[in-house]
Amino acid sequence: MTPERYKRLTDWLEGHPALREGIILLNRWLPLVPFVCYPVLLMLLNLRWFRMLSIGRGSGALDFMQVIARAILVPGLAFWLGTILRARLNFPRPYEQPGFVPLVSKETHGNSCPSRHALSAAVLGMVWLYFYPSVGVVMLTIAALICLLRVLSGAHFVRDVLAGAAFGLTFGFVGMWLL
Prior knowledge:
- Helix 4 runs antiparallel to helix 7 (158-178) and helix 5 (116-131) packs parallel to helix 7.
- It is elongated, with a radius of gyration of 19 Å.
- 33% of the residues are buried.
- Helices cover 77% and strands 0% of the residues.
- The protein has 179 residues and is mainly α.
- The longest helix is centred in the middle third of the chain and has 32 residues, at 58-89.
């Protein structure tokens, strides 16, 4: 997004202060939803595993433990590889352009692509989708909203969030369904 185009957007948002404040608030707090819900998912999976053990389904419990391990390793590896990729690419952030004033000021420079917020929310949404499809759809909707908010806040280019979401969705699909 060019500084001029973003300025038109922020000027429009100045005329809609409730929407502007809502974007700022959601940008700050919505990324916590996948982060907080992920341990809940792991707890639910472990409760299911303990139930399997207690009713004597030992071989099924062992298989399920491997699936739980994937639910831990897939997001961890995606985050780690995404972090390495963005450090290697070291793309600038939108607000590093002259004349670009972000809605939410940040001090970070470079490391813009892929967006880790988008990547993390997308891969966690895919893990939820594997075990609890209805919750997974909600989590993927939240991931899409996080992508939108990262662009509206001025923290990322569209390219950054699309790359992060694509990386997270692909890694989640391959790791949970194809392995």
